[in-house]
Amino acid sequence: MLWDLFWTFFKLGFVSFGGGYAMIPLIEHEVLQHNWMTAAEFTDAVTLAGMAPGSVAMNSAVYIGYAASGWIGSAAASIGIVLPSIILMFLVATLFYRMYHNHWVQAALDGMKPAVMALIAYAAFNMAMHSGLWNGYARYTWFSIGIFAVMLFALIRWKMHPIAVILISGIAGIVLYV
Amino acid sequence: MQPSATLFNKSQLCLQLFLSFIKISPSTFGGGYAILPVIHREITDRRGWITPNEMHEITAIAGATPGGVAINIAALVGYRIAGIGGLLTSVAAISLPTVMIMLVLCTLVAVYRDSAVIEAALLGIQPAIIALIAYAAIRMRKDVLRSRMAWMTFGGSCILLLWTSLNPLVVIGCGMIAGCLVHYLQWKRAVSQAVQPIPSPSNPSPAKVRDVKITKMTS
């Protein structure tokens, strides 16, 4: 189990282009295949991972590891996801520092960017579907859509800080649902 | 890239690296590029470890390699300052605080799961997180969706993700192949355009052909 956690996140670490949010669909794919969580539980994991500081991929690894087998699981998963970064960065710093000016590498990276963007958009869409936004009871659905719309507007128009967004929506949740 | 420290002051540098990155770590809210100004201020302005120019190069490389941007930057800066020891120290320093915070959060949620207030707050935060993720995609739009091909790759990726159950990894791979393909076609067109406007045999300039080819490849 621990080895499984480590190995899964180790593999993911090597392909986590675009860091953070673009990783969510990849992690979800693995988590569902291993039966570590249901899709709804994974939504909770992303919520918590997004609330905390640091990379979302790393935070999800910590949470999933914790849910699967406690603190040791967290350690296994987070070491698994950070080790590829260490290996790759060491290789880049020692061997491939100049490789990034190669035009084929640049072309591949340019082509990858829209795909990464699609992954991020898909992560948002998927989370909305699995959180029961559309098939929950009416009051919850409308409140959720309202919070989503207001926060998105605040982010785009006023460049509101993510901490403020999370605090305000948390308070809104308490006011609306308690 | 060569580490610039001697063995003499290495351990002291590692300690300084550790302190710097452990301080930066909790401010990486929303992940990724939000941390850049903080890192730049600490590493180039305050500590003066790395020139702004080199820092921009490191940032570009860190963004292009797999893994979190913040972790990658920390690793490269650490290696530059104090070699492999510096790399390991910096990565540990930038990940430990956030892992700890996340663990505390996990334990708290496990304990207070049944509390109505916590449940309500989390229900409210959930759509906000979706908004944050959506915003990250929207923010990328300006830099990424500049050409028709980028739009097509984006659309194709969305279709693959929504209507097939392929491993999302395939989508990234397809994007890379598309990027290389476009690059190859552009290069080919540049070559043929350079060849075509020379119908007269009086002016067969092979040098011109080679010129265009080279400028197109490096641009």
UniProtKB/TrEMBL annotation, chain A:
Keywords: Cell membrane, Membrane, Transmembrane, Transmembrane helix. Belongs to the chromate ion transporter (CHR) (TC 2.A.51) family. The chain crosses the membrane at residues 6-24, 45-66, 72-97, 104-125, 137-155, 160-177. It comes from the Bacteria. It is found in: Cell membrane. GO terms for molecular function: chromate transmembrane transporter activity. It comes from Paenibacillus agilis. This is Chromate transporter. It is a multi-pass membrane protein.
UniProtKB/TrEMBL annotation, chain B:
It holds the Pfam family Chromate_transp. It is a multi-pass membrane protein. The chain crosses the membrane at residues 58-79, 91-112, 118-138, 169-187. One of its GO terms (cellular component) is plasma membrane. InterPro entries: CHR_Transporter, Chromate_transpt. GO terms for molecular function: chromate transmembrane transporter activity. The keyword Mitochondrion does not apply. It is found in: Cell membrane. Keywords: Cell membrane, Membrane, Transmembrane, Transmembrane helix. Belongs to the chromate ion transporter (CHR) (TC 2.A.51) family. This is Chromate transporter. It comes from Paenibacillus agilis.
